[in-house]
Amino acid sequence: MSTLGKRLLLALVPTGAAAIAAWGWLSYQPAPSVAAPAPTPTSRVSNENGLTIVTLDEATQKRSGIATDALAATKRQFEQTAYGSVVDLQPLIDLQTRYRAATADVASARAALNASSQEAERNRVLFQDHMNISQKALQAAQAAWSADQAKLQSAEAGLEGVHASAQQQFGPPLASLVAGKDTALAGLLDGRDMLLRIVLPIDGSTSAPDQITFDGGARGRIAARLVSASPQSDPIAEGPTFLYRAPASLPVGSKVIAFLPTGQQPAPGVVIPRTAVLWFGGQPWAYIQQGKERFVRRLVDDQSPFDGGYFVGDGFDAGERVVTRGAQLLLSEEQRPPVTAVAACKDPECDD
Fold first, then answer.
1. Which residues, 6+ apart, have CB-to-CB distance to 344 below 8 Å?
2. Residue 5 lies in a domain
3. Separation between Cα atoms, residue 99 and residue 94, nearest integer Å
4. What confidence score (pLDDT) does residue 216 get?
5. What are phi and psi of 265, to 5 degrees?
6. 89-134, pLDDT tens digit by residue?
7. Which residue segment(s) compose the domain that 111 sits in?
8. For residue 39, is it within any domain?
């Protein structure tokens, strides 16, 4: 081989070795990674047989403060609704004050008459006993006696007038209370009780019950006992009007919804607590827990206030657990739009 050929061979050997090394490096490089598809997030809301189910594990329920109570079986007496108001008792208190003042006037007039009567009798005896006193003194004593008789009659008339006024405004039982003869109603005067004027249905199908209940707001249903027929009508409605006594719980003038028992047999059902009811779409709903992690929303249909909640005869069963705290959170979860895999992935390659 010539000197020129050897030089060319020596020049090509390094170049070939470099090319072989480069090819080997490229052939052993790992293939570029392909972004794995994002896992589809698990939805907490599902539909089964037309029912929307919200599923929350026990840890999430605890963090969210969700609480439930078991529904207890109860019975509700069939009732008729009536309306009324809380009566202002200040006029009754004023009448009692006037009655006591009139009673004192009668006692004073009676004492004065007793004294003048004795004086007139003594002067009469003295005058007849050889005229030991003058006729003028006798006549003055008799005149004082007659005046005291007139004063007593006037005081007694005033007392009767106060009693008659009490009867006209409040009826005989409360008039007796004004006179201090009915201590069973004393709670009306010292603020422990309040007086309700209830208007019964005008159709006359219900007589005045001895005991009724009425909606006391946050206190639930409160019992009231019959006092008497009301001598005065109620300005809000027409019909037979009666007075009822109940523990003081509402301001004077408050409008009252009362419930009158009827003769029908009590109806079975359950009471949904007020704290369990939420309004959605203009209707009342409650969530029932199914198992440990599933919740379904039910319509509280045909509800009526009862024992601090709402009595329902259908749609709920005794023993079921109703959500009493956290129902609004469950509704928000139920109404949340579903999360898709694309929405959950933040990698720009998810858009390819």
1. 38, 40, 41
2. no
3. 9
4. 85
5. -70, 145
6. 899 889 988 988 988 998 998 898 888 888 888 888 877 877 677 7
7. 91-178
8. no
* Alpha carbons within 13 A on the beta-carbon side of 197: 23
Say yes or no: 98 and 166 in one domain: yes
Say if residue 95 is in the same domain as residue 130. Answer: yes
Residues written for the chain: 352
Cα–Cα distance between 313 and 12 in angstroms, integer?
100
Q: How far apart are CA 119 and CA 133, in angstroms?
A: 12
- Token couple for 82: 């009536």
Domain total of the chain: 3
Q: How far is CA 149 from CA 108, 156, 277, in A?
A: 12, 11, 71
In a domain, 346, yes or no: no
Q: At what angle do helices 90-128 and 135-170 cross, to 10 degrees?
A: 160
Longest dimension (CA), the chain: 199
- Do 84 and 215 lie in one domain? The reply is yes
Assess whether 141 and 274 both reside in one domain. Answer: no
Do 84 and 214 have their domain in common?
yes
Structural contact between residues 128 and 166, judged by C-beta atoms closer than 8 angstroms:
no
Its pTM stands at 0.56
Encoding tokens for residue 287?
Answer: 């969530």
pLDDT at res. 145: 84
- Tokens representing 343 are 């929405």
pLDDT band for position 152 (50/70/90)? confident
In a domain, 340, yes or no: no
Pick from 167, 168, 191, 194: nearest CA to 178: 167
Contact 257, 251 (CB under 8 A): no
